[in-house]
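Before a colleague's protein record goes any further, I have to sign it off. Alongside the sequence sits a line of tokens, each denoting a local backbone shape. I want your independent view on whether this chain really folds as the tokens say. Where you disagree with what is written, explain briefly why. This is what I was given:
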Amino acid sequence: EKNVARTLSNPQGEPRTQHGRTPHHLLQGTITPNGLHFVISHAGDPDIDPDKHRLVIHGLVKRPLVFTLDALARYPMVSRVTFVECGGNSAPLFSKAPIQASVQALHGLVSCAEWTGVRLSTLLEETGIDPKAKWLIAEGADAPALSRSVPMTKAMDDAMIALYQNGERLMPGNGYPMRLLLPGWEGNMNVKWLRRIKLVEAPAMSYYEARTYAPILPSGQAYQFYFLQEVKSFITQPSPGLALKGPGFYEISGVAYSANGRISKVMVSTDGGQRWGQAALQAPVLSKAFTRFRMAWNWNGGPAILQSRAWDEAGNAQPTRAQIVAQRGETKAVPPVTAFPSQHYNGITSWAIDGKGEVTHVYA
């Protein structure tokens, strides 16, 4: 189907920030196909010869090591299903007035896939970690050599050097030939085109962690080194652009996910949060992965406001939009595909349905 495609902000591939957003409103299930997985890069995608590419691990280690792609392929592999979400996903919901756009434009910078690769802890242990190492700096092979600082606790937990995505080699826009995968953590930290890991005592305070992904809060403090993509959900069907064709039975469906583990429940409201019903969760419900929720709804043809709210197994509840903006502030309306007014929006999204069945974005 020709209309099932990513929206590209930079179709000519110019060396600047570019996005490709997932069309969640046209998908079902929980796994995002590789060709529809969101992509974002800050200077285009590098053209890498896999035979010449190297991963260097050095710094506070006893034995600095260099790995080729063939060498990594000889290590024990692991697979896990997990979501990756850009810290700027859903940022248009920080605007003072609701932006009229599709779920793809508003929430399209998150996707979920099965990733396969080598545990980072396996490689780090082989180097002989110096006890003074508390952080690592991961660097990509793109034009700006994008780098992010990662605590060693995460590196030794569930971090992976990902080589495969949904069973095939990584797509170029998702880091071919290898990327760092940090399940549940801010997308920018999952460094693509990975070429260097340096173990250090303190974070590097690189450009992207000190500026781009560190917005200033109303308090004047920087929202910095906040890694987790917290519990969140949004309704994909119905949603803007998918008008209802008269009264009757419909299925309300969407996705929920959390960096803090499995989704425990999702509640759905059709009257702007006055009353709630519990949605069914599609099995299997996996940790740090998309969970599809569904609820039957008999629309009477009158006005309605659809909302979803998720909880995770750690007891965290998805906040309301009012709770989010009270802490982080609001911004002027901006085009949803080109700007990052703030980071880590995980509040409730509201869709209004009028008597004609048209769906719009509202704050409720």
Q: What stands out?
A: Residues 336-340 have pLDDT under 50 and may be disordered. The chain has two domains: 7-212, 232-362. The first strand starts at residue 7 and ends at 8. The longest helix spans residues 120-127.
